[in-house]
Design brief:
alpha/beta, 2 domains, seven-stranded mixed β-sheet, 30 strands, 368 residues, 20% helix
């Protein structure tokens, strides 16, 4: 069995973090996100992985190479133009061969039991099996209706405008539960014969409705466990929190320090600094005297946290310099940002790579 990871999107919803790298390589707790997905597939014995890439495809290939450093054999199905979810899978057909394969959207963080999903797929004789996740209704995701055996009856995919409206509605009244498409599919090679070549094709809006119309055996099975689509900054932070609090059991780099937090090789923390247990400190980072890093915070590799600076629920990507006497809360700083001395920001915000915040900058929420 092979794995196919759809990793070609431009990540527009995660800008500015995706201006300088593809979304699947954004570090989550100091580990490129795709590495978590590869590790999940490898856990279940899948050691041949195909990346479907388009946006900044060279960066993904440069990071993973032939996959030997990650315990897998890596191949690349590169799209010269975006082909959509189904088009990307079709583009990988020659590399996938005649094996059953697992398809994973490149923005899904999960600990679902893959073996049980594959077992269900084979028992039902399915041409394609969708994995479902229960969420409150209404949902900004594609909703799946099945019969009592799990055979799919209807695939209801909302328009992009409806997705955006539901995702931004913070006070929706819950009316029940939906079973949503979790972006994990088990597919037989025969399923690819239903996907046209040479154009963009959506597996959700075109391929699956066509298979249902033709009476093909398409099944779905719900699973419990952690599942998250990290397509937006809020979800990126949620994924970070889940890893730091061990809500999902994955392996960030480094080890649990005797002082009670995660740290990587070469990290140095002054004895007078306070570091909470839910903090990860990257390779060769420096935390100076009197600093406090609390909440669910990540300090990237080669970062510097200045004297008497306070960070709460902050994510610093690599090479970020934070000066002395700063107070940052709920801030995400991309690679190479520089925060000069005495900066105060307590408004959740994301700063693009290389941003400089000048000495004494104040960005604070107004009192109620």
């Amino acid at each position: 069995m092979k794995g196919i990871i759809i990793a070609g999107g431009a990540g527009t919803r995660l800008r500015p973090l995706t201006y300088t790298r593809p979304k699947p390589l954004i570090p989550v707790v100091n580990r490129p996100f795709l590495e978590y997905q590869v590790a999940w597939l490898r856990k279940y014995g899948i050691d041949e992985v195909i990346f479907c890439t388009n946006y900044m495809s060279d960066a993904i290939a440069a990071h993973f190479g032939d996959g030997s450093n990650f315990g897998v054999r890596m191949q690349y199905a590169i799209e010269t133009t975006p082909l959509g979810t189904a088009g990307a899978i079709k583009n990988a057909q020659k590399l996938a061969g005649n094996d059953t394969f697992v398809v994973l959207n490149g923005d899904v963080l999960t600990d679902f039991d893959l073996d049980s999903i594959v077992k269900f797929h084979r028992e039902m004789g399915s041409i394609s099996t969708l994995t479902l996740k229960e969420v409150p209704s209404p949902s900004p995701y594609g909703v799946i209706d099945t019969d009592h055996t799990g055979r799919v009856l209807e695939f209801r995919e909302p328009t992009e405008s409806i997705k955006k409206a539901l995702a931004s509605a913070t006070h929706l009244e819950t009316t029940g539960v939906d079973y949503i498409n979790a972006g994990i599919y088990i597919m037989e090679p025969e399923a690819l014969e239903h996907i046209p070549t040479g154009r963009a094709v959506s597996v959700e809006r075109e391929t699956y409705p066509l298979l249902l119309q033709q009476g093909a055996p398409v099944y779905a099975t719900a699973r419990e466990g952690f599942w998250l689509d990290i397509g937006r900054p809020a979800q990126y932070r949620q994924a970070t929190n889940a890893i730091l609090t061990r809500e999902i059991a994955v392996d960030p780099p480094g080890a649990w320090d005797v002082a009670g937090y995660w740290s990587e090789e070469g990290a140095e923390v002054n004895p007078t600094a306070h570091i909470a247990p839910t903090v990860h400190i990257g390779k060769n980072a420096r935390v100076h005297s009197g600093a406090s890093v609390t909440g669910n915070s990540v300090i990237g590799k080669n970062c510097r946290v200045g004297t008497s600076t306070t960070l709460t629920d902050v994510i610093l990507e690599a090479n970020v310099l934070v000066g002395d006497g700063c107070h940052l809360e709920g801030v995400i700083l991309d690679d190479g940002c520089h925060v000069e001395d005495d900066v105060i920001i307590n408004v959740p915000s994301v700063y693009a790579a290389g941003t400089v915040l000048r000495k004494g900058t104040r960005i604070v929420s107004s009192p109620d």
